[in-house]
């Protein structure tokens, strides 16, 4: 793994190595060897599975489709992570995303390891029947390695409740008489899914931002007088009107935009949203519920013609897809795909806060430049864990066959994320490290301690 994830893991291990209070039982040469072992374990996946699914198409041809499942690390529990249907899916991307899942679960104390899957297709080019067959084949080809106590997939880009329902049904057929409810999460509620799962990631993403700018400040955490530049940035924006732009208007982005729109604790104005086609901009603020209503009846897309805007009854300028990134806003939420802010475009970013709803939307070199500019980046593993947290609740509910109300799910979600943020934010304001580095170090520490205790470093 040569990704930015492995670079940040190695930096986290270096921080822990230099911290004499961390695992003091490991000294001198033994300590150096143990940390070398940790770097090698955590920067590579346990297993990488690849298949070419044989799928009969509607036109009578049979095609082969590349499909992947990476099992990165299961120190803390069964592998867990989404399955993505997107034409850009490839081995490196799946490995990197699986590593992020390991870290995300460790950071939020979710008792799962990290995995990720993908199928290299544009789902829009396939009929519902073909997608159904692709889902069935995926489960058939990977059936030996999947299961409620082995590896539990969930939706990701290009997949949703429908695909998880189909996959769970196939898992159940292949494993008669065995527990199956916890084999996939993100299922529809009528099929054993959890209330609130669909909104969980977007709600969690917005909550990390609101908590930083509002609840945490009100909690008398005593950083108001801190000379730390991050604390100064937070203080300079707290209680002031904020302009927000949200890239991506799918499962995550649309809910972040709605949460921000409805929030009464901050003075938000959502001036721009975007999707794979275009950016919509209105300096006076966009009507987010109307845009969600439009997207629901137009295959998830935003209006991108004057006629579409009229149909949605929304006033906005239609701009280029990339324009969303460079607007004069305080807050930019990235909720589309990875590598959106890179060394070649980072200088054009004006936002003071970037919230990573997507996985890995900022490259490693761009991240350092943002840090040097004093921009606060709420990183993916902290911000977008709502989905996996509620997936964990879904897995638990499936085991107990006792289901929580939506209000209970959101309360549990907020409590879990709050306890992570209360462990992370105070250290951030007493330190010059990025929030990403602090989150990764926290997650790597949890994993390293468990690997040591489990005897995996001998
Ligand atoms: P989705 O498929 O529902 O939506 C993706 C959105 O991004 C769509 O609006 C699409 O039009 C837009 N988009 C695609 N290509 C784009 C481009 N080049 N520029 C701008 N917009 C583009 O996916 P999602 O579930 O909302 O996931 C979005 C991101 O969040 C992904 O990185 C995913 O890994 C991450 N994530 C999702 C979940 C979850 O529960 N769904 C959980 C954690 C992380």
Count the DSSP helices: 15
Measured by DSSP, the beta-strand proportion falls in: 15-25%
Instruction: Please tell me the overall pLDDT.
Output: 95
CATH superfamily of the largest domain: NAD(P)-binding Rossmann-like Domain
| Number of E-type strands | 12
CATH class designation of the largest domain: Alpha Beta
Ligands bound to this protein structure: nicotinamide-adenine-dinucleotide
Order of helices and strands: HHEEEHEHEHHHEHEEHHEEEHEHHHH
Most strands sheet? 7 strands, mixed
Sheet with the most strands: spatial strand order = 9-8-7-6-10-11-12
In words, what does this structure look like?
It is a single chain. The protein has 458 residues and is α/β, with parallel strands linked by helices. It has three domains: 1-44 and 435-458, no CATH class; 47-195, Leucine Dehydrogenase, chain A, domain 1 (Rossmann fold, 3-Layer(aba) Sandwich), CATH 3.40.50.10860; 198-378, NAD(P)-binding Rossmann-like Domain (Rossmann fold, 3-Layer(aba) Sandwich), CATH 3.40.50. Helix content is 45%, strand content 16%. It contains 15 helices and twelve strands. It has helices at 4-18, 28-42, 91-107, 128-141, 161-174, 197-218, 229-237, 251-262, 288-296, 306-312, 364-373, 380-383, 386-400, 406-428, 435-453; strands spanning 47-56, 62-73, 79-85, 114-119, 151-155, 241-247, 267-274, 279-281, 317-319, 331-334, 353-356, 376-378. The strands form two sheets. It has a seven-stranded mixed β-sheet, with helices on both faces. A five-stranded mixed β-sheet has the order 1-2-4-3-5. Strand 1 and strand 2 (62-73) form a beta hairpin. The chain is globular. Nicotinamide-adenine-dinucleotide binds at residues 155-158, 201, 247-253, 274-276, 321, 335-337, 357-359, 384, 387.
């Amino acid at each position: 793994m040569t990704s930015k994830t492995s670079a940040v893991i190695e930096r986290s291990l270096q921080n822990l190595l230099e911290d004499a209070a961390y695992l003091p039982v490991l000294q001198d040469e033994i300590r150096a060897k143990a940390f070398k072992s940790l770097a090698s374990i955590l920067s590579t996946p346990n297993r990488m599975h690849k298949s070419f699914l044989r799928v009969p198409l509607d036109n009578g041809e049979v095609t082969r489709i590349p499909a992947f499942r990476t099992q990165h690390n299961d120190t803390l529990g069964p592998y867990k992570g989404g399955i993505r249907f997107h034409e850009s899916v490839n081995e490196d991307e799946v490995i990197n995303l699986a590593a992020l899942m390991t870290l995300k679960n460790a950071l939020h104390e979710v008792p799962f390891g990290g995995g990720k899957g993908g199928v290299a297709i544009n789902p829009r080019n396939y009929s519902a029947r073909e997608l159904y067959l692709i889902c069935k084949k995926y489960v058939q080809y990977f059936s030996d390695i999947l299961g409620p106590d082995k590896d539990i997939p969930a939706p990701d880009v290009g997949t949703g409740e429908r695909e998880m329902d189909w996959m769970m049904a196939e898992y159940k057929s292949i494993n008669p008489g065995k527990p199956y409810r916890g084999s996939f999460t993100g299922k529809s509620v009528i099929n054993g899914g959890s209330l609130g799962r669909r909104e969980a990631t977007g709600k969690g993403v917005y909550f990390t931002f609101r908590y930083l700018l509002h609840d945490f400040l009100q909690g008398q955490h005593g950083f108001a007088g801190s000379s730390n530049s991050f604390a100064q940035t937070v203080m300079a924006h707290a209680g002031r009107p904020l302009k927000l732009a949200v890239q991506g208007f799918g499962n995550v982005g649309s809910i972040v935009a709605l949460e921000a729109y409805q929030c009464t604790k901050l003075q938000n104005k959502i001036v721009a949203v975007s999707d794979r086609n275009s950016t919509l901009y209105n300096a006076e603020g966009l009507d987010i519920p109307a845009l969600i209503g439009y997207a629901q009846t137009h295959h998830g897309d935003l209006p991108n013609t004057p006629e579409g805007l009229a149909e949605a009854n929304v006033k906005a300028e239609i701009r280029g897809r990339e324009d969303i990134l460079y607007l004069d806003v305080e807050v930019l939420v990235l909720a589309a795909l990875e590598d959106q802010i890179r060394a070649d475009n980072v200088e054009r970013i004006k936002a003071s806060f970037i919230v990573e709803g997507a996985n890995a939307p900022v490259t490693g070199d761009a991240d350092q430049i943002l840090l040097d500019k004093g921009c606060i980046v709420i990183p993916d593993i902290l911000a977008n864990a709502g989905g996996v947290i509620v997936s964990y609740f879904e897995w638990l509910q499936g085991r107990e066959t006792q289901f929580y109300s939506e209000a209970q799910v959101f309360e549990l979600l907020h409590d879990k994320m709050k306890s992570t943020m209360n462990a992370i934010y105070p250290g951030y304001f007493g330190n010059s490290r990025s929030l990403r580095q602090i989150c990764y170090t926290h997650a790597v520490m949890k994993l390293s301690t468990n690997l040591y205790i489990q005897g995996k470093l001998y």
